[in-house]
Design a protein that fits this description.
Largest sheet: 9 strands, mixed
Strand content: 15-25%
Shape: globular
Structural class: alpha/beta
Order of helices and strands: HEHEHEHEHEHEHEHHHEEEEEEHHEE
Oligomer: single chain
Bound molecules: nicotinamide-adenine-dinucleotide
Number of helices: 12
Distance between the termini: 30 Å
Radius of gyration: 22 Å
CATH architecture of the largest domain: 2-Layer Sandwich
Helix content: 25-40%
């Protein structure tokens, strides 16, 4: 059996039983002193804000490195993890020799960089959503994962995936509760309107390494506005600007489209179209509808998948069902009816006043999908075990590539045909320029 096919837990068990507990293991395997207790050595990159939601879950392992561009945030996280080494530059942090894994909670424009660098260095990865802010970034992150998937456990941070409703919706769709599927819609109602990049204001506080915060993004002057949202909500202060995020497409879109993605077993779409408010070169759109053609698979025909946001909504199947009451929701349409769901529950609306649902074979209790348990714990266990996670970057990669492609169609202003194997628009050569971002000198994504 090749080394790649021995999972970590089996490898460690083997090493311990052979009396080799203190053997120095190759990079990417749990390092010697932690092998007997099977603890991971973790770098938490982006140590405050969203990271707070990870603190408790990481306490059973060793957080050995904290990285943040704001030294005050490092000091805050150090109260939780007093033994960790501190960094302000994630590139230096990833050089720390004893690392097994990275949890990345930085702003969106750095995700793809940190993800690819971490996986290239053989480190397990929990990557907050979204995987990247362009088609090219998402594809590079997925490629890095695919090269390493026999060695690494990687989770895309869409933690709502652990809600039981995700399984129930999947069961209903796959068992034919709406008949043969033809459409799937997801939407989000958040509206964060911005006029353009804020004007520069004042000087960065001494604790903040603003140039590192900008990282690969083109230069924009400092303003306290980017930092005014409060822990875990600060993303809403910068993610509406194209150089730092993708607005609601990458934000709640990552989560809500996940409820569709989990049910439809989809790959990369063959086309994308989008309409919404007028394109603004600085600010991502609020009102937007993106529509995709997703190829057939073994159990369903080709279907249309759509994302609606900022007030744009699919048409409700019944006038007494107000979809607007579901802030972040999904709707599936089949030849026998509709399924409408929030993150937590769902309703089925069969076609026809006399529909008796006899077309639908409810699955037996012993075939109900097993709950996945805690989302973050699944990743921690996978790092030490079979490497399998529910939201790995193959699964999340096709979803996020689709979402980013929708923004390309929005920018191109036309329906785009897409070759998902080569990552190229095939009916408009000029649109290919929108698949990627430009970065400041010195920043390399595939490092
Ligand atoms: N899964 C979820 O439900 C959820 C919820 C909130 C946020 N998020 C995601 O978490 C990420 C962070 O969001 P936030 O609101 O905490 O943002 P934030 O602006 O507060 O940044 C988080 C932390 O990262 C630090 N940081 C910024 N740039 C860095 C860099 N280059 N290197 C190291 N540290 C850096 C900040 O100082 C801060 O401590 C976003 O990508 C967002 O999409 C996910």
């Amino acid at each position: 059996m090749s080394k790649q096919h021995i999972n970590r837990r089996d490898f460690l068990k083997g090493a311990v039983s052979a009396g080799a507990a203190f053997t120095i293991l190759p990079s990417g395997f749990l390092s010697g002193q932690n092998a007997p207790s099977n603890k991971l050595n973790i770098a938490l990159i982006g140590a405050d804000g969203r990271a707070r939601a990870h603190y408790n879950g990481l306490k059973n392992d060793n957080v050995v490195a904290l990285c943040d561009v704001d030294e005050k945030h490092l000091a805050f996280a150090a109260r939780e993890f007093p033994d960790a080494t501190h960094y302000v530059d994630w590139r230096k942090c990833l050089e720390q020799k004893d690392l097994d894994a990275v949890v990345c909670c930085t702003p969106d424009h750095t995700h793809a960089f940190i993800a690819v660098w971490a996986m290239n260095r053989g480190l397990h990865l929990y990557l907050e959503k979204p995987m990247g802010i362009s088609v090219e970034e998402v594809r590079l992150v997925r490629e890095a994962y695919m090269k390493n998937k026999d060695k690494l456990a990687v989770q895309h941070g869409t933690q709502r995936h652990a809600k039981p409703n995700f399984d129930r919706v999947r069961e209903l769709i796959q068992d034919g509760a709406v008949g043969t599927l033809s459409q799937a819609h997801a939407w989000g109602n958040r509206q964060l309107r911005r006029p353009g990049y804020p004007k520069g204001e004042g000087q960065p506080p001494k604790s903040l390494h603003y140039d590192l915060w900008l990282g690969p993004a083109p230069f924009h002057p400092y303003t306290p506005e980017y930092f005014s949202g409060g822990p875990g909500m600060n993303c809403l202060q910068w993610n509406m600007y194209w150089d730092f995020g993708t607005g609601q497409v990458g934000d709640m879109g990552s989560h809500t489209m996940d409820l569709v993605w989990n049910a439809i077993d989809a790959g990369i779409p063959t086309s994308a179209a989008a309409e919404g408010e007028k394109y603004h070169p600085e600010v991502t759109p609020v009102e937007l509808t993106m529509t995709f053609e997703v190829p057939a698979n073994a159990w369903r025909p080709a279907i249309d998948v759509a994302w609606h946001q900022g007030g744009a909504m699919p048409i409700s199947p019944r006038d007494y069902v107000d979809l607007n009451k579901i802030g972040h929701g999904v709707m599936f349409k089949g030849d026998k009816g509709f399924l409408v769901a929030s993150f937590d529950n769902r309703i089925i609306i069969p076609h026809g006043d006399d529909a008796d649902m006899t077309y639908y074979n409810r699955r037996s209790e012993d075939n109900i999908i097993e709950p996945m348990g805690d989302f973050q714990q699944e990743w921690l266990d996978a790092c030490k075990g079979d490497l399998k996670t529910s939201c790995d970057l193959e699964y999340a990669g096709s979803k996020m590539e689709m979402m980013m492609l929708g923004l390309v169609a929005y920018r191109a202003g036309k329906k785009l045909e897409y070759d998902g194997v080569n990552g190229q628009v095939t009916n408009d050569a000029k649109a290919n320029q929108f698949l990627k971002h430009t970065y400041r000198d010195g920043w390399v994504i595939n490092g």
